[in-house]
Amino acid sequence: MAAANRLVVFIALISLTSSPALATDGKPLQDYCVADNFFNNAVPMNGFACKPPQSVTPNDFTFSGLNKPGDTANPAGFKVTLVTVDQIPGLNTQGLSMGRLDFGPGGVNAPHIHPRASEMLIVMEGSLEVGFVTTLPETKLITKVLQAGEAFVFPQALTHYQRNVGKGPAVAISALDSQNPGTQRVVAAVLGSNPKLPVEVVAKALQADNNVAAQLLSKFK
Question: pTM (2 decimals)?
Answer without folding.
Answer: 0.84
